[in-house]
């Protein structure tokens, strides 16, 4: 037995405003429903409205995770929020979530690793729980990418959406439960393939998302297949033992190609990209919460989470739910 981080609750939040592919076309984006579905599998996404922010979505997801676990917010000793679209440059959006939950003193900070942000946050929180810095941790991915999309650029604006997902982790003495292994990577040589063309210390502006989609696609399949093999080996498991893969929801074609490369049955891959599009750091916990609530993911299932994003960054985790 050793001290492990066990998931005791999940939650998610989507802004009420749902935007279909056809609505994007009707609003002037030079695209069609058919093109978007064929190239990405995306049918709709949610966009935040007035007053809805990364922190408000994160708070709603966190509240649902706490409620699912039946745990009082006062027990939370650590909040790690993964986001590339914080409410403000500083303070960390995690502290806004903390205050909204009525927690007066805990560790709270944001992690920026774009679409891999949730895997980074999960790994950091896991190690802090193992290091006895807290007993309960909220690990949240939350994004409002609609606010950094260039709606004149049809190759990017159709791909992303807003939302949040949260896990409540509890440190427990366990053998084969909770987070079993995490692996993280970054390679900054590829900064220029997926980035935002603004920033506090450069232009002094927020900027808009820019991407070379074809090149990102090519790197994604290779990096994801490699890190999945690496994390499974570290956990002492093989791909045929995995009950569910919960991937970052960037593009259905990337999910299919990665599953094929690893020989994983596509029916064991949780897919929500059709309804949520790419919600960056929120997509993995949002997909996991969806699959927990619809009954697909059950207690004792072996799960693999994976993501790849700007930087490039990429990572994966193996856990027994
Ligand atoms: N609607 C209609 N046509 C579009 C379009 C849209 N929304 N976006 C691009 N096109 C057009 C292009 O202008 C191009 O036209 P042309 O041949 O006349 O020049 C054509 O479609 C093909 O574009 P291309 O970029 O080669 O398409 P693709 O097959 O590579 O698909 C992506 C584009 C973005 C869907 C694909 O590259 C992709 O999914 N990449 C990975 C992106 C990703 O997931 N990033 C996030 C990782 S975290």
The span between the termini is 17 Å
Top-tier CATH class of the largest domain: Alpha Beta
> Uncertain runs with pLDDT below 50, 5 residues or more?
none
The distinct ligands, each listed once, are: coenzyme A
* Arithmetic mean pLDDT: 97
Number of helix segments?
10
**What is the CATH superfamily classification of the largest domain?**
Thiolase/Chalcone synthase
Radius of gyration: 18 Å
H-E order:
EEHHEHEHEHEHEEEEHEHHHEE
Name the beta content range. 25-35%
Shape: globular
How many strands, what sense, and barrel or not for the largest sheet?
5 strands, mixed
State the secondary-structure class: alpha/beta
